[in-house]
Design a protein that fits this description.
The chain is of the alpha/beta class and 579 residues long. The chain folds into two domains: 8-333, 3-Layer(aba) Sandwich (Rossmann fold); 363-578, Alpha Horseshoe (Serine Threonine Protein Phosphatase 5, Tetratricopeptide repeat). Helices cover 47% and strands 13% of the residues. The protein contains 17 helices and 14 strands. The strands form three sheets. A six-stranded mixed beta sheet has the order 1-2-4-3-5-6, with helices on both faces. A six-stranded mixed beta sheet has the order 9-8-7-12-10-11, sandwiched between helices. The termini are far apart. The relative contact order is 0.11. The model is unreliable at 345-352 (pLDDT under 50).
Length: 579
């Protein structure tokens, strides 16, 4: 379990603050994450990585000379927001283009993609390479669906070495892509991990049993077997990884491989060395040449007892990058010559504020803005009550943080709404400001999508007229389409779309029938509740729950449940003020 924390909602911010303070010689904290203390050469490509907190040394521990130029740090097990990513990118930008490199999780893809679009709109050349090394999370013919785990280190390093060598953005992308094509990983776990403030692990493993193929966010494995001996584990990992040799490797005998044996938190170094002893024997017996092996904790999951093995199939170019010197707080190799200049605490690097202007609204719209705040506060109250249940539902096939993330996002949204109202903003501006705060503070998939929902609803409401049922229905319909466009989920994929779609349809029907705001919303709320409950019979087809689809059947989707709860809470406020 996690023993030392204050407010669990502040855990990620406080650990980032302490981490930056402990390594001031190598890194500097910026809004949204950390960057190298020594600035990149003018005109060179920079590499920005990132992901949720709770995986140290990934991802902040990989920032420094010879590795990433910056890392966006999300909340615990949640992707960083697009705004955080943009802030880190601006802080590290050297004018030669930016390469985003991150693991393949839905929230990371959504937020890094959105950040890439924002930066491109500002004239910055940005590309992305997504790491997909986990062989357990999808079959070979669907490699694009695979998660990124400990193999991220190999890809990050290949990209960073290319960037620091002065290669073009095209070349850095090519090399990072080649590294991802040649890296394969597989992990196992003997116990689950426990989030700060949680009373029990995200999942349990029976004594004497081992999960094969779990994810770094505590996702359950794809198979359970009797726990083997150290040698037995080595044989299992090696045999499964050698069953999938990259197509670009012509001959196993004589092939050169980088090896990462990674501890996930509670399996300690002495045990890792016992396992590595057998791994080396097995690989060399097959004629492989091991190059600069790493036996360490490289990507963890709090107190999870588990390990992963990564094979990085090298060619001459990738081997040069793998062996290159590196000096970060968590990873060292060779000797780095520091020829850049240190960035002062106040130096800077331009930041993207991303703040929506708080323009005053009409008296009618300001009154509606107060109703918006009341809705957000009511939603925060109901989510706080249901936080543990939402986490339980999320842990069945995901990472268990949905309740925490929703509460964090709603708290930020309500705070931003208060600020907007104090500036006499109308309802549209208040919703847009609240959506930006929700997305930025919560991060992850749901944070990004709820930001999209509030932004689109705010754009429809505007800051002048008091909204009627038709205006609300139009805004919800726009929000639905924007969510589908951003998240790619469709009806019956077992996501919040399975509530938002029928709710939008019902609200539009009520509006066309001439119902009042209160009448239309109340009728549509019943549809939303029924739709959330109906997701228990659906199979997830997208997101983190997809690899564990069987575990999810029989339980409603947490995102759908939280949406129905918020819609219901909003209805109670609407009936109080709009009858």
């Amino acid at each position: 379990m996690t023993y030392l924390f204050n407010d669990p909602a502040q855990f990620a911010d406080e650990l980032a603050e302490g981490y930056a303070a402990a390594h001031r010689d190598k890194i500097r904290r910026v809004d949204g994450g950390v960057i190298r203390r020594h600035k990149a050469k003018p005109g060179q490509v920079i590499v920005i990585i990132g992901g949720g907190s709770g995986h140290y040394p990934a991802f902040g521990g990989f920032v420094g000379q010879g590795l990433a130029h910056g890392a966006a740090l999300g909340n615990v097990f949640a992707a960083p927001s697009a705004q955080q990513i943009c802030n880190v990118a601006h802080a590290a930008d050297a004018g030669g283009g930016i390469l985003f490199c991150y693991a393949n999780y839905a929230g990371d893809v959504l937020n890094f993609t959105q950040a890439q679009e924002h930066l491109r709109a500002q004239g910055i050349d940005v590309r992305s390479v997504v790491v997909t090394d986990d062989i357990a999370s999808a079959p070979l013919h669907e490699r694009y669906k695979r998660r990124g785990i400990a193999g991220t280190l190999a890809v990050f390093k290949a990209a960073a070495v290319a960037a620091d060598a002065g290669k073009s953005l095209d070349e850095a992308v090519r090399i990072a892509t080649a590294a991802n094509d040649r890296v394969r990983s597989l992990g196992v776990a003997f116990s689950g991990c426990t989030l700060p403030g949680a009373s029990k692990p995200l999942f349990a493993v029976e004594s004497g049993i081992m999960e094969v193929g779990m994810g770094i966010h505590g996702e359950p494995g794809l198979d359970r077997v009797n726990a083997p001996s150290a040698d037995g584990l080595a044989e299992l990992l090696v045999s499964k990884l050698l069953a999938e040799i990259p197509e670009t490797v012509n001959n196993i005998s004589g092939a050169r491989v980088g090896v990462i044996l990674n501890g996930l938190g509670a399996v300690k170094y002495e045990e890792l060395f016992v396992v590595y002893r057998k791994i080396e024997q097995l690989l060399t017996a097959r004629g492989l040449i091991i190059v600069a092996p790493v036996v360490d904790e490289m990507i963890t999951s709090f107190d999870m007892a588990g390990v992963s093995l990564t094979l990085f199939w090298l060619n001459d170019e990738l081997e040069q990058g793998w062996l290159a010197a590196v000096d970060t707080p968590a990873f060292h190799r060779g000797v780095i010559a520091y020829d850049g200049f240190a960035i002062d605490a106040d130096t800077g690097a331009k930041q993207a504020s991303g703040k929506y202007p708080l323009n005053p609204g009409s008296a009618q719209s300001q009154a509606t803005a107060n109703i918006v705040l009341a809705v957000l506060e009511a939603a925060l109250d109901v989510i706080a009550v249901q936080q543990d249940e939402l986490g339980r539902l999320d842990a069945i096939a995901g990472d268990g943080d949905h309740g925490i993330g929703m509460q964090r996002g709603l708290k930020a949204a309500a705070g931003a709404a208060k600020t907007a109202i104090a500036a006499h903003a109308g309802a549209g501006t208040t919703l847009i400001t609240a959506g930006d705060a929700w997305s930025d503070r919560a991060g992850g998939t749901s944070g990004m999508l709820w930001g999209v929902i509030l932004r689109n609803l705010g754009s429809a409401l505007g800051d002048e007229a008091r909204p009627d049922a038709a205006t609300l229905a139009t805004g919800i319909a726009a929000a639905l389409q924007a969510v589908i466009a951003a998240g790619k989920a469709q009806l019956n994929d077992k996501t919040l779309v399975d509530v938002l779609y029928p709710f939008s349809t019902a609200l539009m029907k009520g509006a066309t029938q001439g119902l009042s705001v209160s009448e239309a919303w109340t009728a549509a709320t019943e549809i939303a509740k029924q739709s959330a409950e109906a997701t228990r019979n659906l199979t997830p087809k997208i997101g983190r729950a997809r690899p564990h689809a069987g575990k999810s059947i029989g339980n409603p989707d947490p995102g759908a449940v939280s949406m129905a709860l918020i819609i219901d809470a909003a209805g109670r406020i609407i009936r109080m003020h709009c009858d």
